C-alpha cells in the first residue's frame, strides 16, 4: 500500500524535482553538443542582425529623402527654402547630444546654422547615442543575466552594419541602383523627390551618402562628411582602391543569396573604394561609438555599438582566460613530522595546452564570416584578448620557475642537470608549445579550413593576425630567456671557461707537444655532454639560442686564452692552429645538434667566426724579424695586415706581449688574477665582448709603464724577448680602439 504521509510526499516531490532538473541539464548538454547547434545559432543571430540593419536602413533612407526634399523645395508664397526654415528653428532638446557630437566632429568652429543643415547627420548621431544607451540598459538588465547572450550578437551585428552601410554607399555614392536596404533600385526624378509619399522605399538619389552629396544643388552639399568636394573622383568618392578591400570575403552568389540582403533581397558587395569610405566616415565612427577598442569605460556621448563591443570583448577574454584558473596550482608536501617541504609547482599538461589552443582558435574564428558570422576586421581586437591571455599565463608561469639560478642548475662534479633545471626545462617546453600554437593559430583558423580554395582576404587576415600576436610571442620569449635560458647558458659557459683555462697548465710547452690535441682531450666531451644532457631536452628554438651563445663564447674565450699563452714557440703556434680547426668542427656539430637555423659563420653578425679564422693568420705574423725596424713602423705594418680588422684589439695586445721580454708582465699577472678570471672580464658569459676592450687597453698600458720603469732601473733582466714591444703597443693601441 502506498504511504501518502507528508514525509513520504515530500520525499517523492524532491526525487521528482531532482529527476526533472537532471533531465533538463542532460537535454541542454545534448542540445549544445549537437554538431548543428553552433551553425543554427549563428544563422539565427545573422537573421536577427539582418532585421536590425533593415530597420535602421529604412529609417535612414527616409530621413535622407526628407533632407533632399527640404533642400530642393521652397515655400510657394514666401519663396523661402524649406531648409532655411528648418535652420531658423531651434534644435529639439533630445538632439542636443547629437549636435555636440557634430560640432566636435567639425572641429568645434561651426556655427549653429551650418550644423542645423546636416539633418541626416543629426539624426544619425542621435540614433547611435540612443542605441548605445539602450544596449547598455539591456546589458545591465536583471543584474546582467542577459549580458552574455546579448554580447554574442556583436559579430553578426558588425557584419550586418558593414553590409548595410556598404549597400547605402553603392546606392548613394557610386550611383548604381539600390538592390538592398529596403529600396527598389529606382533613381527618382525631382517630381518623385518632391512627392508626399517619397521615402526610403523608392525616393533615393543617385549620388551622395548619409551626410553629404556631391550631386545636390544646395550650397552646403560640397562639405560632405566623407570629404571635401575637391577630393572627389569621377565616381563621386575620394581616393582610389581602399586599404580595406580584404575585409570583405568574396562569396559565391549562392551564399550571398542564402544570407540575403538587408531588405530581404540578395545583397551587392561594396566595392574597395566604398569600403574605404565606410571605415573612414564619421557615420561609421558614430555607429561604432567613442570607445574604438571596446576597452574604455562608457562616458558621456558614447553610443552606437560601443557597449556591445566592450561586452563582447570582455566575454571573449573571460572565455579565453577561464582555463588559467586551474593551471599552475601550488604543490604542497610534508615530511614525517608534518613539517612543510618546499615542492616545485605543478605545470600545465598537454591537455591543458590543447584546451588553450582550441579556445584561441575558436575565438579567432568569430572574425571569420563563414565560421563565426563576424567580420575579418575583428581579428585585431580578438588578437588583443589573446595577447592578454598570454600575458596572464606568463605571470603565472613566472611564479612557477624554480628560481635556482645558474648556481643551482648543474651538479658541480659532472655537470648534469639538477632537479630544479629539469623542472625549468619542462616549463620551457610548456612555453614553447604555447608559442607554437600562437604561430600556427592564424593559418589553422583562416586558411587551413579552406585550403586549397582559400581567398586572398583570408590570407591577409591571417597575416594581420600574425602581426597582432607578435607581442604575445615576445612576452613568451622574454620570460623563457630571462628566467631559464640566461641562467642556463651562463652555467654552461662557466664550465666551458674552466675547461678552456686548462690550456695554461703546460699544454703548449715544447716538451709536451706529443700530448695530443687539446680540443679533443678537454673540450670535445664537454660539448657532447651539453648537447645530449641539455640541448636535446629543450625546444628547438630555445636549444638553438643556447647553442649559439655557447659557440660565440667558446670562440672568444679560446682565442683570448691562446693569445695570453707565454711562451708561444713555433711548434706551439702550429698546435694552436690545429686546435682552432678542431674547435670550429666541434662547434659546428654543437650548433647542428642544438637545432639552430644559423651556421657558425652567421652568429653574432659573423664576428666570432671571422676572429676564429683571422687568428690563424695572426699566429704566423713575422713582422719582428728585422731588428732594425723602428717600433712606429712595425705598428703601421700591423695596421695594414688583413687579419687585424677581424681580431679584437685585446687579442692583438696579448699576442704581441708573447714576444716581449719577461719584464713586461702579462695583463692577468699585473691585475693579480688567474687567466680564467681575467678572460672573463673580457668575454662575458653571454658572449658579449665590447665592454672589456677599453679595460684591456688600460691594463696593457699600465703593463707598459711598469716595464719602462723596470727597464730603466735594472735593464733587460733575464734576457730574451723583443724590447720594442712596449713602444709598439703604445703606438698601436689608440688606433686599434678607434677602428673598433
Would you kindly provide a brief summary of this structure?
The chain is mostly helical and 740 residues long. It has helices spanning 6-32, 37-72, 82-87, 96-105, 112-117, 119-140, 147-151, 154-174, 190-194, 253-259, 272-280, 282-288, 306-321, 350-364, 379-399, 419-446, 456-468, 470-501, 518-533, 540-563, 570-594, 607-619, 631-639, 649-657, 667-670, 675-682, 693-714, 725-739, and strands at 223-224, 227-228, 333-334, 340-341.
Polypeptide structure, described:
The protein has 740 residues and is mainly α. It is 58% helix and 1% strand. It contains 28 helices and 4 strands. Strand 3 and strand 4 (340-341) form a beta hairpin. Helix 6 packs parallel to helix 12 (282-288), helix 19 runs parallel beside helix 21 and helix 20 packs parallel to helix 22. The longest helix has 36 residues, at 37-72. The protein is elongated and about 120 Å long. Residues 174-269 and 291-301 have low confidence and may be disordered.
Amino acid at each position: 500500500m502506498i504511504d501518502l504521509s507528508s514525509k513520504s510526499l515530500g520525499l517523492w516531490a524532491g526525487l521528482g524535482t531532482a529527476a526533472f532538473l537532471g533531465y533538463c541539464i542532460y537535454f541542454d548538454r545534448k542540445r549544445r553538443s549537437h554538431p548543428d547547434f553552433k551553425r543554427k545559432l549563428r544563422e539565427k543571430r545573422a537573421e536577427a542582425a539582418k532585421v536590425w540593419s533593415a530597420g535602421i536602413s529604412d529609417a535612414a533612407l527616409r530621413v535622407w529623402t526628407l533632407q533632399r526634399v527640404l533642400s530642393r523645395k521652397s515655400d510657394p508664397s514666401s519663396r523661402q527654402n524649406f531648409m532655411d526654415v528648418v535652420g531658423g528653428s531651434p534644435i529639439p532638446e533630445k538632439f542636443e547630444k547629437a549636435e555636440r557630437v557634430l560640432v566636435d566632429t567639425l572641429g568645434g568652429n561651426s556655427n549653429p546654422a551650418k550644423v542645423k543643415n546636416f539633418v541626416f547627420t543629426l539624426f544619425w548621431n542621435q540614433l547611435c547615442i540612443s542605441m548605445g544607451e539602450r544596449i547598455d540598459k539591456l546589458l545591465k538588465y536583471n543584474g546582467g543575466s542577459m549580458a552574455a547572450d546579448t554580447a554574442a550578437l556583436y559579430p553578426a551585428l558588425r557584419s550586418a552594419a558593414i553590409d548595410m552601410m556598404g549597400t547605402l554607399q553603392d546606392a548613394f555614392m557610386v550611383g548604381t541602383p539600390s538592390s538592398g536596404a529596403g529600396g527598389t533600385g529606382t533613381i527618382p526624378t525631382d517630381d518623385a523627390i518632391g512627392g508626399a509619399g517619397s521615402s526610403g522605399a523608392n525616393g533615393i538619389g543617385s549620388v551622395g551618402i548619409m551626410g553629404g552629396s556631391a550631386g545636390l544643388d544646395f550650397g552646403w552639399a560640397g562639405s560632405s562628411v566623407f570629404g571635401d568636394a575637391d577630393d572627389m573622383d569621377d565616381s563621386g568618392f575620394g581616393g582610389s582602391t581602399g586599404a580595406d578591400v580584404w575585409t570583405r570575403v568574396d562569396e559565391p552568389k549562392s551564399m550571398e543569396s542564402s544570407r540575403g540582403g538587408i531588405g530581404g533581397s540578395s545583397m551587392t558587395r561594396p566595392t574597395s573604394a566604398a569600403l574605404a569610405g565606410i571605415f573612414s566616415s564619421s557615420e561609421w565612427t558614430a555607429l561604432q561609438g567613442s570607445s574604438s577598442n571596446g576597452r574604455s569605460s562608457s562616458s558621456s556621448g558614447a553610443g552606437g555599438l560601443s557597449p556591445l563591443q566592450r561586452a563582447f570583448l570582455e566575454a571573449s577574454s573571460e572565455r579565453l582566460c577561464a582555463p588559467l584558473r586551474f593551471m599552475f596550482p601550488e604543490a604542497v608536501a610534508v615530511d614525517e613530522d608534518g613539517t612543510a617541504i618546499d615542492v616545485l609547482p605543478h605545470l600545465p599538461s598537454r591537455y591543458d595546452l590543447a584546451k588553450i589552443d582550441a579556445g584561441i582558435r575558436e575565438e579567432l574564428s568569430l572574425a571569420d564570416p563563414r565560421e563565426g558570422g563576424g567580420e575579418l576586421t575583428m581579428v585585431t581586437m580578438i588578437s588583443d584578448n589573446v595577447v592578454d591571455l598570454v600575458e596572464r599565463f606568463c605571470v603565472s608561469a613566472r611564479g612557477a620557475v624554480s628560481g635556482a639560478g645558474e648556481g643551482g642548475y648543474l651538479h658541480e662534479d659532472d655537470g648534469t642537470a639538477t632537479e630544479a633545471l629539469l623542472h625549468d626545462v619542462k616549463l620551457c617546453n610548456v612555453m614553447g608549445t604555447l608559442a607554437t600554437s600562437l604561430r600556427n593559430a592564424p593559418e589553422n583558423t583562416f586558411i587551413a579550413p579552406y585550403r586549397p580554395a582559400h581567398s586572398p582576404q583570408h590570407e591577409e587576415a591571417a597575416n594581420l593576425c600574425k602581426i597582432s600576436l607578435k607581442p604575445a610571442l615576445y612576452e613568451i620569449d622574454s620570460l623563457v630567456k630571462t628566467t631559464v635560458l640566461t641562467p642556463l647558458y651562463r652555467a654552461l659557459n662557466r664550465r666551458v671557461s674552466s675547461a678552456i683555462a686548462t690550456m695554461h697548465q703546460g699544454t703548449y710547452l715544447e716538451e709536451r707537444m706529443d700530448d695530443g690535441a687539446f680540443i679533443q682531450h678537454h673540450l670535445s666531451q664537454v660539448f657532447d655532454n651539453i648537447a645530449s644532457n641539455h640541448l636535446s631536452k629543450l625546444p628547438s628554438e630555445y636549444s638553438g639560442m643556447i647553442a649559439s651563445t655557447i659557440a660565440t663564447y667558446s670562440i672568444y674565450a679560446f682565442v683570448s686564452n691562446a693569445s695570453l699563452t707565454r711562451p708561444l714557440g713555433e711548434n706551439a703556434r702550429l698546435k694552436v692552429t690545429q686546435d682552432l680547426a678542431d674547435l670550429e668542427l666541434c662547434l659546428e656539430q654543437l650548433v647542428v645538434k642544438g637545432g639552430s637555423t644559423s651556421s657558425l659563420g652567421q652568429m653574432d653578425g659573423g664576428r666570432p667566426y671571422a676572429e676564429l679564422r683571422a687568428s690563424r693568420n695572426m699566429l704566423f705574423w713575422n713582422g719582428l724579424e728585422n731588428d732594425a725596424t723602428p717600433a712606429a713602423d712595425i705598428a703601421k705594418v700591423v695596421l695594414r695586415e688583413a687579419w687585424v680588422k677581424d681580431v679584437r684589439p685585446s687579442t692583438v695586445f696579448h699576442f704581441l706581449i708573447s714576444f716581449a721580454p719577461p719584464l713586461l708582465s702579462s695583463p692577468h699577472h699585473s691585475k693579480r688574477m688567474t687567466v680564467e678570471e681575467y678572460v672573463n672580464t673580457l668575454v662575458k658569459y653571454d658572449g658579449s665582448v665590447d665592454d672589456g676592450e677599453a679595460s684591456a687597453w688600460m691594463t696593457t698600458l699600465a703593463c707598459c709603464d711598469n716595464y719602462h720603469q723596470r727597464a730603466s732601473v735594472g735593464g733587460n733582466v733575464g734576457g730574451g724577448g723583443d724590447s720594442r714591444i712596449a713602444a709598439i703597443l703604445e703606438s698601436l693601441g689608440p688606433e686599434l680602439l678607434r677602428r673598433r
